[in-house]
Structure formats: C-alpha cells, structure tokens
Amino acid sequence: MSVQQVLPLNRVATAPSGQFRADHLLVAEMVKPGSKVLDVGCGDGDLLQLLETRGIDGRGIELSREGVNRCVAKGLAVVQGDADTDLVNYPDDAFDYVILSQTLQATRQPKVVLENLLRIGRRAIVSFPNFGFWKMRLQLLIGGHMPRTENLPATWYDTANIHFCTIKDFVQLCDEINVKMERSIALDLHGRPVPLNLPWWVWNMFGEQGVFLLSRGGGK
Amino acid sequence: MGSVKSIPSPAISADERSHEVDHPSSQVAHFGTEQPLRLDCGVDLSPFQIAYQTYGELNADRSNAVLICHALTGDQHVANVHPVTGKPGWWETLVGPGRPIDPKHYFIICSNVIGGCMGSTGPASINPATGKVWGLDFPVITIPDMVRAQAMLIDRLGIDTLFAVVGGSMGGMQVLQWTAAYPARVFSALAIACATRHSAQNIAFHELGRQAVMADPDWHGGGYADRGIHPHRGLAVARMAAHITYLSDAALHRKFGRRMQDRELPTFSFDADFQVESYLRYQGSSFVERFDANSYLYLTRAMDYFDIAADHGGVLAKAFADIKTRFCVVSFTSDWLFPTSESRALVHALNASSARVSFAEIETDRGHDAFLLDVPEFFDISRAFLQSAGKARGVSLKDR
C-alpha cells in the first residue's frame, strides 16, 4: 500500500455547519476557488450549492429524476445521467475536478468509473462508506448479518450499494490503476476526521467513510 | 344509413383569416429590397415582413430581451387574446404576469415565423411580383431561414444579445438553431420537448398530413386562394392526425376512454359516437379557422429538413463547440413525438462541448402537449433556470 503518497489535509472543516454536511465541507476545502467541477451523483445539489458559494463553476449528473429536477429548480446545471454509462460522453480534461461523493459503491463498474473520473478531470475527489468500519465488522462477526448503519440503513435486498469496499481495498485499486492519492482522510461516525498520525489499519477500522483527493499517477 | 356529419365547416370565414396574413393585428417589421432574406434553398426573399408581439420593456442596457419561438401551429400571440379565435395566448401558462417569463422583468418578443400565416411573409401572403397570393410559388423555407429572419428582427429592435431564447417543439428547434448559428447572441437557451433533427417517424406523420391537404379537391394544386376557397377538410384531417401525436395513449384514455358523445348506445353509423372522435373533429375544424393549408405544408417541411448535425459535418457536438450559452433542456416522459432519448442525445453533445447544461425529464402522461399545459414542475425549473441565468448576467429581477 502506498502510504507514503498520502499527504495530510491541512485545514479540515471540523465544526459541522448547520447548513452544509461535514463531508461536503471537507470536499469543498479540497477544491481550488475558481475551478470547474463535475459532481457525479449530485443528489439534491447540496454540495454544488456549497461550491457555488465559493465561486466554483459546478455541474452535476444525477441518476434520479426527482434529484435532477430539484437541482435544476435550484438553478444548478445538472443533467439526468448514470455514472456507469454517461461519463464516456465527456471529453478528456473537461474539468479541474470530478467529484464522486458516496456513489462509487453504487456503480456497476467502480474501476471503469474511477478511470473515467481521472480522464474527464485533472483531479478526482472520491468519498465512500468504509465497509471496514468497526461497526460493520462487528455486525458481520457477532450478529452474522449484513451490516446496516445510520448512514446505510437499507437492507441487503433493497440497497443500491452493490460494490462496497474498505479503505484498504480502495487504496489497492488506486495503486493498481496508477492513481496518485494527493490527500486522504477518514471520517468517523460524526463526520470528524480520524487523527492523521495513526496507521492505515486504524483508519480502516475507525473511519466510517474515506475521502480521497486523487490525480493521475506518473508512469510506473 | 342516415346523413353522416363530416367535419364541420369553419365558423370563421377565409376572409377573416386571410386579413391577418397581410394586415396582422401586431407590430410589423418590413424589410425592403435592400435587406433580402437569404434562404437555404438559394432564393433571396424580398421584400418580406415579420409580424411580432412584445411584452414588457427593454431595460437601459438592453440585457433583458427574451425571444419566444412558437411551435408548428403557433404564432406571435403568445400572451394576449388571439385576434382570430378570441382565445387566450397559447403560452400564458409560462409567459405573463406572475409567470416564469414575466413582462415585469423581461422584454418579451415573439414573432410569427417566415412561412407562417399570421402576418409574417409566407405562402398565404401576396407575392408583390404578381399581386396574387404566393401559394406554391413561395420558396421552401427551413428552420435556419426562420431563425435568420428572427435575427434580422432582433437587429432591427437594436438588441445585440438575447438574454434567453425559449421554445418548445418546432420552437425548440429554433432555440437550438439560434445557439448553433449565433452562439454569442444567446445568453441562455431553454429548449423544450424538441430534438436536433426530425426523426423518420415524425417526417412520416408530416407526410401523412401533407397528403391529406393535397388530397382535398379544394386544394387545387395550392392555388385555392385565387378561387376564394380553402381545403379545410384536408387540413382538418391533417390536424386530427397530428393532434393524436401530441397526446398519449394514457392521456386519451384518461380524458375520453370509450365514452360515448351525447348518446348511450352506438348509432351504427360513422357519426362521432365516441367522445374522442368528437374531440378530434373539433380540433380539426377549429384549427382550419386560423391556419392556412399551404402554410401547414411549408412549416412541416421546414421541420422535416431540420438536422443540426448534418450542417456540421455529421458531428452534433461541433455545432456547439466552445459555446458559452447556458442551456436548459426539458423533456416529458410520455412524449413520443420528441422522446427523452432525443433530448438526451442533445445533452450528450452539449456535454462533449463542455457547455453549461441542465436537463430535466418531467413525469407526465400528457404527451408532447405537456409543454403547453399546466405542469408546475416544468414552471419551477424554467423559473429557476432563468433566475440563475439572470444572476449570472446581472439582469435585475426586482420590480421596476
């Protein structure tokens, strides 16, 4: 695992604002002002609205018609589309950042999606629920059933999340497809960052979700 | 069998209708021989005129002009009582006080297309060279021709950049043509229930309509005007067929089902036993009161020829390369004339051009006609899109 590639995130939004979600504030911190951003799986457009307040030119793709219409009704540039099938329509280097927030685990081909993110955008910001989180492990180990948490309440038979992974798995995938991790952070159940000076296995155990700033790796 | 009531004759005479052709109850922009309209077919149309309506006031920096493009059988009377039918404006759901496109905020322009029959030059107009009605001597026009004429009107009004160009169906085609031909003159574009090209199925339906008109003996090879008649039966059939394509199976079923019209039992005749028949006959006969048959031929033809990609080497994205216009594309789930797949193809091309685009598909069972009806979700989206564009453009939406 390329632990040495991971740089600390300097300023982390610690106090969750009443208006915006903690992980959204964290993602927004990673985006340079004035850049052009595509949010894949933008939901109701909360993150795009946050980015807009910071002078960022944001666009969105959302699968659900209701989500898209709510975004468009907020004046956001959002189109109905599917991360698995529609990213191919975007040209190379179309965006400074492509964001995939809490959506990777719901795609059919996470690897292809990840590759597309870093083709369309010079950087990608990916966050996902960590299936290696201790509560998940405990439910499987002790309870013997598929884990369900506050943030992932769906049962196994009606969840949209078909490709769960752990932080460790994700880091391995990035290694495999030569993606450079510029910044990475694990958030606990309350959206607070897990202290940086702890080893990977602690992150993988106590991080409820992982947030990663990625760029294209150099040739290996 | 007893007497069969066919489609009733129009209540409004051909004279009343044709008066609007040359002397419209609208503002008219005249373009003399020094300003011909160069048509795609190679003909210079000159002189010609454009009839248009405006609502609201142009602001000091001329940044609040909204052009509304009408659909196949629409006209410039978008938000006022129609001078021929006495009915409300055709898009008063979207345009008017308190509506998403409010004359309080915007200077709204809507012109009758070239080839139309409500005051802009078309086949029903008098050909100045002969002193007679143009008829089929009128040159075949295209969607780009319509837009070229509109651009001349916008020039005449002293407007450089339109804040928004808005339209549905054939109006949406004009919106897209505006952005492809004059990208720098369109700040935002709202294209509803339309496509970048007319599909084979749609061309087929148009051909059906044209053949119905031409099969009417009163058509006289397009020369009916000289004889003081109008092929109202053929045109009504064309309208009836077209009207079916504007609805949906679900909408027809909900509205009419198999219910009978003013009777309990079938009459065992070809009278309009069913409500749906009666409705269609009404649609047909009321249409011919306000529309010219040859104009219908020309405008359907213009839609058939429309194909933006073909004009750009077959690659749709090239039509929108580096475009700065803000787009909002809207489709309706039950629209089978301009299905969502057509809008999606447009959105893909706009994405490939890195254009700023919003795209919403709205769930409704009302078919293609939904864009003209009271669909609150559509209004919310239109309003928000224009407000957001207004913010970006610096157009004040405050009460003046």
TrEMBL record, chain A:
One Pfam annotation reads MetW
Question: Coiled coil where?
Answer: none
Q: InterPro entries, per this entry?
A: Methionine_synth_MetW (IPR010743), SAM-dependent_MTases_sf (IPR029063)
Known CDD domains for this protein? AdoMet_MTases (cd02440)
**Where does the source fall among the domains of life?**
Bacteria
Q: Which NCBIfam families match?
A: metW
Specify the protein name.
Uncharacterized protein
UniProtKB/TrEMBL annotation, chain B:
| A biological-process GO annotation | homoserine metabolic process
Active site location: 169 (nucleophile), 335, 368
| Single annotated GO MF | homoserine O-acetyltransferase activity
Q: Where is the AB hydrolase-1 domain?
A: 64-373
Q: In which pathway does it act?
A: Amino-acid biosynthesis; L-methionine biosynthesis via de novo pathway; O-acetyl-L-homoserine from L-homoserine: step 1/1
> Where is this protein localized, as stated in its record?
Cytoplasm
Which chemical reaction does it catalyze?
L-homoserine + acetyl-CoA = O-acetyl-L-homoserine + CoA
Output compositional bias ranges, type Basic and acidic residues: 14-23
Q: Which InterPro entries match?
A: AB_hydrolase_1, AB_hydrolase_fold, HAT_MetX-like
Where is it mostly found?
cytoplasm
Positions contributing to substrate binding:
239, 369
Record-level GO cellular component terms:
cytoplasm
Q: Outline the segment boundaries, as ranges, of region: Disordered.
A: 1-27
Keywords, A to Z, come to: Acyltransferase, Amino-acid biosynthesis, Cytoplasm, Methionine biosynthesis, Transferase
Q: What does the record note on quaternary structure?
A: Homodimer.
HAMAP family referenced in this protein's UniProt entry, alphabetically: MetX_acyltransf
The record's function comment reads:
Transfers an acetyl group from acetyl-CoA to L-homoserine, forming acetyl-L-homoserine.
What's the protein name?
A: Homoserine O-acetyltransferase
Task: Provide the species name.
Answer: Bradyrhizobium vignae
The organism's taxonomy opens as: Bacteria, Pseudomonadati, Pseudomonadota, Alphaproteobacteria, Hyphomicrobiales
What gene, per UniProt, encodes this protein?
A: metX
